[in-house]
Specification:
By secondary structure, the chain is α+β, with helices and mostly antiparallel strands. It is built from 17 helices and 23 strands. Helix content is 33%, strand content 23%. The N terminus is likely disordered. It binds adenosine-5'-diphosphate. Adenosine-5'-diphosphate (ADP) binds next to helix 4, strand 11 and helix 10.
């Protein structure tokens, strides 16, 4: 992290300044390696910061937005530049601080007195507050937001809690698409072989038959309706593609090839807005309230309040535990020190809260490594690149596996290569069709060249061996058969459109398949095998859907299908229907 922060270039620019009765106003800039240029305007005098505004930034709205609001507001409230970072928006927070400092310098004000850390709320006493609702949802990722919209559509009044400064959770990092079977979109595209039955079979095979068949069946049977519902609420996923480890094309992506997670979160937030649902960010649930064996609410807090929230039903949608190394390593010590693609809010809270009141868990030791993670930035390189035709090459410049096999198989193959890494290779055609590649290129993750030999040199692999591998792959695509490794999807287009790109990748912790035990109605089940009244769960916090290995595209299917079921059933329970 230090290395990345070091890249932040403070750039002071001459924007001019104005003097008012309340200090001097000036602008400054800084460059964040992820979000690009950040421009901040500050009004201050030697003793007081009166106003701070982020004039522009290029970070995604869902992540940069909260930092652009909360960092300036804290600077004014606590009269200091030394305010807390917004979790998971650290680079944007740092760039905003740098730009504000440059603005002070531009205004002719010495920034040194403002670089002292002041006590911030959260270090002080909180006041007690009571709230109530029909359905309380803990966690505003994909499952929580889906459940919130659905519960509100069913007539429930909803409160959503989110511990982070922004909504979206790990869902924001979902770059591929959503698997579904027998959808109207597949039918329109003439794809008739991706049936509910094949989807169940592929999911069970992908999960090494460890999955809960009833949950998988529910997911597959409801997937087409979920796609139609997304379209109804303004989040269509019309582009259809294959995904690793499946025999048919189930993946549904946004039209323009943009990352599915951010797309869905932004669309769902727009619907939440229409339904007057305003997730309470920076608010962490710490305990479930139980009366007479029924869950009746939760205890939560933000920086200034201790909330007691009474609810007709509670949905736990807190995501997985891929950022909680203590919990993961208690099940699989070999993961100690591995890179994780998870945001820091994937801390397993929901599992801890629900097991404290007797909930059962399943498959907690099933933790997925994703094969294409850029280690320095922990950034996941989307599987959609391989669906679109990208391949994996090892340090000797040769392919080593069926690159479209299941994630666990590809990860294991990669770990056996020299140096335990691979290069993912793609071309300009893929860049033109996959919007998500922009962040890899702009973020400096790629090496690039106009020829195979030139790319090999950048990668530090033997140019002749690499060029031969590329020609061999292009010939396999032309023949439609990968005789070497039997890859049978993502083999429609070759890699012949220069310039060529490569990103160095290794496996990283990605998905925690295990979690709370639920039934097909999303009731949480206790250790005695009975339903816990009033408690529902959906999304990565639950276990059983993915078994021993999750197929790419099934996380989004899981959160939308089970988020909808949880929203419907929790609303019905709370409203006594
Ligand atoms: P899913 O894909 O299952 O929806 P996500 O990771 O996308 O999971 O979203 C889960 C969300 O729940 C995250 O934004 C995370 O910060 C939030 N969360 C986790 N624990 C708590 C908690 N104790 N209180 C409030 N929000 C929480």
């Amino acid at each position: 992290m230090k290395k990345i922060l070091g890249i932040i270039l403070a750039v002071s620019m001459l924007f001019g300044m104005t003097a008012t009765a309340e200090g001097v106003t000036a602008q400054g800039t800084a460059i964040s390696p992820i979000g690009g240029e950040v421009v901040v305007e500050v009004t201050a005098d030697a003793n007081t910061i009166y106003d701070v505004k982020v004039i522009s930034h290029n970070e995604t709205p869902s992540i940069g937005g909260p930092a652009a609001e909360s960092v300036p507001a804290d600077m004014v409230e606590y009269n200091t530049l030394a305010v807390d970072d917004v979790t998971n928006a650290t680079l944007t927070s740092v760039a905003i601080r740098e730009a504000a400092k440059n603005a002070l310098i531009e205004a002719g004000i010495d920034p040194t007195p403002f670089e002292v850390k002041k006590e911030q709320a959260g270090d002080t006493e909180r006041t007690a507050e009571e709230l109530s609702c029909d359905v309380l949802i803990i966690g505003a990722g994909g499952a929580g937001l889906t459940a919130a919209v659905k519960a509100a559509q069913e007539g429930a009044n909803v409160i959503v809690l989110e511990q982070m400064a922004f909504v979206g959770g790990n869902t924001l990092k979902a770059t591929g698409g959503m698997n579904a079977a027998s959808t109207h979109l597949q039918a329109a595209a003439g794809i008739t072989d991706s049936t509910v039955e094949t989807f169940i079979e592929d999911t069970m095979n992908g999960g090494h038959q460890k999955n809960d068949l009833a949950l998988v069946t529910t997911m597959a049977e409801n997937s087409a309706e979920a796609i139609a519902w997304l379209e109804e609420i303004g989040a269509p996923l019309p582009k259809i593609a294959p995904t690793g480890g499946t025999t048919h094309k189930y993946l549904h992506e946004p039209e323009d090839g943009s990352a599915v997670g951010n797309f869905l979160v932004e669309k769902m937030m727009a619907v939440c807005d229409q339904l007057n649902i305003k997730p309470m960010t920076n608010t962490e649930a710490t305990e479930l309230l139980v009366e007479d064996g029924k869950v009746v609410g939760a205890v939560a807090h933000d920086k200034k309040h201790d909330y007691t929230i009474r609810a007709g039903a509670v949905i736990v949608a807190t995501g997985g535990f891929g950022a909680n190394f203590d919990l993961m390593c208690s099940y699989d010590p070999s993961l100690n020190g591995a890179v994780t693609t998870n945001h820091s809010g994937a801390d397993g809270d929901g599992i801890i809260l629900a097991t404290a009141i007797g909930a059962d868990t399943v498959d907690m030791d099933q933790i997925q490594l994703h094969p294409t993670v850029h280690q320095e930035t922990s950034m996941l390189i989307t599987e959609s690149l391989r669906s679109a035709g990208a391949i994996l090459i090892n340090a000797d410049g040769v392919r080593f596996t069926n690159d479209m096999s299941t994630r666990d198989a590809v990860s294991q193959a990669e770990l056996k290569q020299p140096g335990s890494f691979a290069w993912i290779i793609f071309d300009q055609r893929i860049v033109d069709h996959q919007k998500s590649t922009a962040k890899y290129i702009n973020g400096g993750l790629t090496v690039t060249a106009d020829t195979y030999e030139g790319l090999a040199e950048q990668m530090g692999v033997d140019p002749a061996a690499f060029a031969a591998s590329m020609e061999k792959w292009n010939a396999a695509v032309a023949a439609g058969v990968d005789e070497e490794f039997g890859r049978n999807n993502g083999i429609d287009e070759d890699l012949s459109q220069a310039p060529y790109y490569a990103i160095k990748v290794s496996p990283g912790i990605h998905h925690t398949m295990g979690g709370l035990k639920i039934d097909t109605d999303t009731h949480v089940i206790n250790t005695e095998g009975s339903i816990i009244d009033g408690l529902f769960a959906a999304g990565e916090v639950t276990g059983g859907v993915h078994g021993g290995n999750r197929i790419g595209g099934n996380a989004v299917c899981d959160i939308v299908v089970f988020g909808r079921i949880a929203g419907t059933n929790a609303a019905a329970y709370a409203l006594g229907k």
